[in-house]
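question for whoever is on the cluster today: can someone run the full assembly for these? two chains, 523 residues total. i dont have access anymore since they changed the login thing
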Amino acid sequence: MSYMAKFRLWRGDNGSGELTDYDVEVNEGEVVLDVLHRIQATQANDLAIRWNCKAGKCGSCSAEVNGRPRLMCLTRMNTFEEDEVVTVTPLRTFPVIRDLVTDVSFNYEKAREVPAFSPPEGLEPGDYRMQQVDVQRSQEFRKCIECFLCQNTCHAIRDHEENEKAFAGPRVLMRVAELDMHPLDTKDRREIAQDELGLGYCNITKCCTEVCPEHIQITDNALIPMKERVVDKKYDPITWLGSKIRTRSSSK
Amino acid sequence: MSTSVTGIPQGTRAQLGVKTLRTDRWWLQPLVTFLALLAFVIYATWRAFENEYYFSEPLISPLYSPCLSTSCPEGATLFGWTPFGDWYLGGLAISPALFILIFPLGFRMTCYYYRKAYYRAFWQSPPACAVAEPHRKYTGETRFPLIIQNSHRYFFYMGLIFNVILTYDAIIAFRNAQGEWGHVSIGTLILVANATFLWLYSLSCHSCRNTFGGRLKHFSQHPVRYWMWSKISILNHSHMRYAWISLIIVAGTDFYVREVAAGAIPNLYLF
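^ ran it for u. tokens below:
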């Protein structure tokens, strides 16, 4: 069944722009990205959209649909009423390049601030041996497709641009947690997480987890465990004392 | 880039001029949370200051247990232990609940779930995902006073002591008013449910998960701790649920004990 839907798209560049209305045909089984491609093909040839796989695996088509951060390729049209206006805007946390395409280089810059994986000295590639239980936590985080919806939704930078310098965001801190939980990583990342990447800015309101299209439990499995590890190191004298008396670091 | 003003993007970000474009009822969840937590705070505050109707042999309210003042009725104290004596303020005796409630209150205030709940519902930081918060500045939990949230594990340890005491209260509730064992009343069932859900809430805690195994890098070298971490992780999925159920049951248990102690209702014995 086809019907005519009302779409409102944000058109503009470098921050200035406006919402523009389009009436467009929608067919059964389509997603928002299909409809935008139809608008692009029939009404607005210069509409800028970033997309790639159309299967929820490349993380390119992130946008905000009716105010909710989503992948456009995973947002089915049958979740809207036929007379509902569907408003699509660019990710709100990042600078607009054009229309729905934003400059997400902030995320890559922050990712570069995370010290690289540091295996034990002298351990050669190919000598790595570990059991599944030792890497299963990290594997959940490796599902990340870097759509940056979590980075976009986190209010610490979304609502406070001034915090971009101090706070790296949930995706980057999840990478820190992944490495800190890795059995072969020798670097202590707890102070880096707190002092340099701004883990304390996270107030665990879980929006990163809510919007993750891969359903990674970012808050419960990465950010809170990382906060607890920081407490072990910086705010818990008993654990600190235990680490001095016993060789807790080697037991890790 | 220029500084954003109360969450409305400026500069090179898309300037939409509104705090959110969400069309769903995003305000409903924080509103319900706000009302529920506010109701509990009002009720618990009233009961903590009421300083009566908290004990009716063999039932004691969880808000007053352990009762550590000299003024506590015989049987309400923990093996007759009254380290606080009686304190007075302006001629009025200070309620024994006020000596102990800081610990369960601190546990819940610093709990990772409740933090999410009240940051959203009370402080609107943020009120809902992708809805701009009303504050000009945000520093999260990086400085005083919110850096104190890092003390959660200490309140967790204290909470475990309270759980042991409240479990003891539930066990001695298997007596009748004359102190004879082997009886079960409605009050017994309520106190058992109270203790059970407090244990579930405590053991599903994120600090508990870290303490028992989460802080390890090599699970394979610590099979017992890995087993405990796995079980706690299962409970941890329902931490929010246990937080709410235990909160409601604590209030309900206190209310039941109050009504029994005040003589409004009898504590019906099943056998």
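summary bc i know u wont read the tokens: Chain A has eleven helices and seven strands. The first strand of chain A starts at residue 3 and ends at 13.
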